[in-house]
Amino acid sequence: MKIAPNQRQELDFLRDTLDTIVKTVGRENRQAFHELRHRLDGWAARVAVIGQVKAGKSTFLNAFLHNHDFLPSDVNPWTSVVTNIRINLPNDPVSGGNFEFFAERDWNEIVSGESKIRKLTEQLLPGFDTDLLRQQSDEMRARAESQLGRNFTKLLGQTHEYDYVTPDLLKAYVCAGPDTVVDDAGAETTGRYSILTKVANIYARRPEFQVPTIVTDTPGVNDPFLVRDEFTCRSLDKSDVFVVVLSAHQPLTDVDVALIRILAKQDYKDVMIFINRIDELDDYDTDVPRVLEDVKMRLHTAIPDMEFSIVVGSGYMADLVMQTGKEAEAEREALDDVRLARYLKTRYGHVPTDRDDRLWLASGIDAVKAEISNVIDNGVGQQQLAQIRSDIRAELEGVLFVNRRERETLHTRVSHINDEVALLAVEETQEQIDDIKNFQSELEKHVDTAEGKIDQLVNKAWSRLEERLLSCIETFVADQKEVFEEHVFAVSVRGSVKKSLNVDLLPLQRAMEKAVTKAWNTSRSSTDVVLNNCLVSCRNMLKDKFNESTESITLDDLPHDDFVSTLTLAKRSLKVEMMSKRSWAFWRKPEFDVDKMVAALRVIAAEELRPAMEKILAAFNEAQVERASVGNDRIRVVLRMFDMSLNDRVRHLKKEMLEYQKVATDPSFRENVVMRVQSQMEVIERRLINLSAIESSLVRSKMERAA
Ligand SMILES: Nc1nc2c(ncn2[C@@H]2O[C@H](COP(=O)(O)OP(=O)(O)O)[C@@H](O)[C@H]2O)c(=O)[nH]1
Ligand SMILES: [Mg+2]
User: Fold this and answer.
1) Taking the CB of the first residue and of the last residue of the chain, which one, N or C, has fewer CB atoms within 10 A?
2) How many CB atoms are closer than 10 A to CB 691?
């Protein structure tokens, strides 16, 4: 099966295009394209496999990579280290790997640093405890120190590189298992490095993968050991596609749902679900549809606005197909019963004749591959490469501009020289120089003004959202009065008195989410208008002045078209004490002071909800700023190329002035100049033809894709 064939085409196309451009443009313009090429070569689709400890992630990945017993998988939860399998990255070695150890600063960073997903997780999993994290990280350091002895300081911050990584070697670095392992130097190491390993990187080549892909095996979020958990969260920040592995007999814990929600709601991240271990269901032929329905329904309830693709299977079945030996044969035999046939018939519509094919089909591995391929081709891969493509077009546009100007300059020069109006030209040239300088500063002013305006907009949106959120809270608090009154009434009827009341925060969360979305839409559209106006007026100025079209620099593919709030209040509800009225008759039946309770709720709400609100405001602002600055940068590309070209022109004009003076007096010098200018013109003409062809191919293939 080919994984992500479409993006392979896109990648090849962009790479060839960049190569051609580099060969075509002048030396002074190459750097920008070298950088784009570097970005393209470094691009990889990033897939992370996550899920609870022992869901079968490593087993699944081994099957996925068709390598039994590669990643350690076991009944014991291994001390696990985030393992990146780097497949087909053009600049990587063909095989081998490296293991990075913790450095001194990592310990500090674990405690003080923040990853986005961690921040979000904290809001969701209120059990998170920074003090415990610090304590564990100190303990870990101490344990590593005593276990590794003098080696400890030697290893700190180091990386071990290997040309070849065997499963045993891998275990030495990522497992705290009991196996005895012999390292390169022949010394015995009992999984001894694992305590200090921060991350493992394995290089691999797999023809199946059409685009560079980094597949990450994670230890399982919500590891009881927070330090490891922290690292898992950080590596998740970098991934784009998530395969959430669940266990068929315990699908979707609350933590799973929370995690899926966090991931799915982030921009440019795709989530798919693999329900593993179906072989463990008693009657999987009939149970699977039920499990599937259940997972679907619960996901829909928790995250109503998203669709998830769900694949069902068994890493174990796939693993058996890859094994040799009598034991495996017996197990394959045992699994190949009527259940399997019935299951395949209903789920896939056919039953392969070969037994291994039957088990492999039921394992669901190929179905996951197909889905991942689809996601890379149409989701993240497409978005990321589209951004690179837009940037190539913007740079190319700039280069075309520079060359057209140059051609124009050369034209004028030829005519000036031939007309023998050299002396007149001297004067004219000086005027041109002044004119250009004025124009440059005018253009600059335009963009500066737009940036200033956007700054204001962004700030205003931020403070307006803050106001809105505060008023959501206030409205919510005020609304509770009625609820309290009803409750007090009920109490007076029933007579039983609870000491406190729980106020459900879900409606508040919904209201705040709505406010955030609305604020985003307003902020985005007003920023976009300013950006667009600025771009259009720069364009018009260029058009008027130089008859130059810059249409292909667009504001397409800016980040954060939507900002979906992952805001989750750390608490589901707030507790308010029932407060009695203190009156001279308090010994009679208690009377409650609803206003006082509302006031108390107001204080509690302010205190409890403030941190979550600040986090959401910060994320909101980050997204606003990011979108605006990418947009500004696009426009600046125009300006930069302009400036370069115009400065160049001024320099040339100054040189010309001197030349004209000489031309006016020396006929043989004049002839030389004419010849030189003409050959320069030929070079530019040819370059322009080639670059325009490249430009239209970039536009064309984008349209073909869209169609
Ligand atoms: N029966 C069964 N066992 C599985 C399956 N997948 C994994 N296991 C077993 O579950 C244990 C934990 O698997 P592992 O891949 O290490 O889980 P991880 O912690 O998520 O990486 C191992 O003993 C695996 O052999 C499956 O589909 N069916
Ligand atoms: Mg594992």
Assistant:
1) C
2) 21
Q: What's the pLDDT score for residue 542?
A: 83
Question: How many angstroms separate the CA atoms of 281 and 272, rounded?
Answer: 22
Which ligand is the nearest neighbour of the Cα of 317?
Answer: 1
On the 0-12 / 13-18 / 19+ scale of CB atoms within 10 A, 387 is middle
Cα 330 to ligand 2 centre (Å): 25
CA of 401 to the centre of ligand 2 (A): 54
Give tens-digit pLDDT for 15-37. 999 999 999 988 888 998 999 99
Q: How many residues does the chain have?
A: 707
Instruction: Round to whole Å and give the CA distance between 700 and 98.
Output: 42
CA of 52 to the centre of ligand 2 (A): 9
What is the best residue among 52, 54, 67, 331 to mutate for testing ligand 1's pocket, by most ligand atoms within 8 Å of CB? 54
Give the residue whose CA is nearest to atom 5 of ligand 1: 316
Whether pLDDT at 570 is above 80: no
Q: What are 113-164's pLDDT values in tens digits?
A: 555 555 655 555 545 566 777 777 777 778 778 877 888 888 888 999 999 9
Contact criterion met (CB below 8 Å) for 111 and 139: no
Q: Which pLDDT score is estimated for 178?
A: 47
Cβ of 247 closer than 6 Å to ligand 1, yes or no, is no
Q: Which of 7-21, 185-199, 260-274, 579-593 has the largest mean confidence?
A: 7-21
d(CA 525, CA 268): 20
Cβ partners under 8 Å of residue 663, min gap 6:
417, 422, 669, 670, 673
Say yes or no: CB of residue 74 within 6 Å of ligand 1: yes
- Phi, psi of 503, rounded to the nearest 5 degrees: -100, 120
69 lines ligand 1 (CB under 6 A): no
What is the mean predicted confidence (pLDDT) over 296-310? 87
pLDDT at 345 > cutoff 50: yes
The answer to whether the CB of 56 is under 6 A from ligand 1 is yes
The residues, any chain, with a CB within 8 Å of residue 621's CB and separated by 6 or more, are 458, 462
Averaged pLDDT for residues 473-488: 87
Residues with Cβ within 8 Å of residue 244, at least 6 apart in sequence: 50, 51, 256, 259, 260, 263, 271, 272, 273, 274
* Nearest-CA residue for atom 12 of ligand 1: 54
